[in-house]
Amino acid sequence: MNIGSKNKKRVVLPSRPDPPTVDQILEDISRAAPSDPVFSVLEQTGQESLQPGDGDVELKFQQCRQYLELNERLQDARDQLIRQKEELSSVGERLDRDVAEVKGRQL
Questions:
Q1: What is the pTM of this model?
Q2: Spatial CB neighbours of 90, under 8 Å, sequence gap ≥ 6
Q3: How confident is the model at residue 94 (pLDDT cuts 50, 70, 90)?
Q4: 38 close to 32: Cβ distance less than 8 angstroms
Q5: CA 103 distance to own-chain centroid
Q6: DSSP strand E in 1-107: where?
Q7: 46 and 39 Cβ atoms separated by less than 8 Å
Q8: 10, containing H or E segment
């Protein structure tokens, strides 16, 4: 039994500070000099800047538009396949009846 460990006082840590607001973050970024180490690290790693370029926005817009168009085409194709399945089912039923009728005549 270790008597010394019972006598240790717990250290009370200060509470965490509140996270910065969006305005504080943007203000901090706008105050930073171009030579700030964060910007040089981004350049070294090949990461893009924090602000998306117009090309990025346009690319995302075109991708969303293509997705929506493709989704619409897929829904149309699904509807067409459902109609064709129903037609094939009715034709198959009619064929079964005709075959049964022909067999009935032969007997």
A1: 0.42
A2: none
A3: very high
A4: yes
A5: 58
A6: none
A7: no
A8: none
For 13, 14, 21, 24, the CA distances from 17, given in Å and listed in that order, are 12, 9, 12, 14
Copy the structure tokens of residue 86.
């129903």
28-76 pLDDT per residue, tens? 888 888 777 777 666 665 555 545 556 788 888 888 999 999 999 999 9
Is residue 28 a contact partner of residue 20, using CB atoms and an 8 Å limit?
Answer: yes
DSSP of 34-64 = TT-HHHHHHHHHTPPPSSPPHHHHHHHHHHH
Token code pair at residue 90 = 């009715």
49: Cβ contacts below 8 Å, ≥ 6 apart: 42
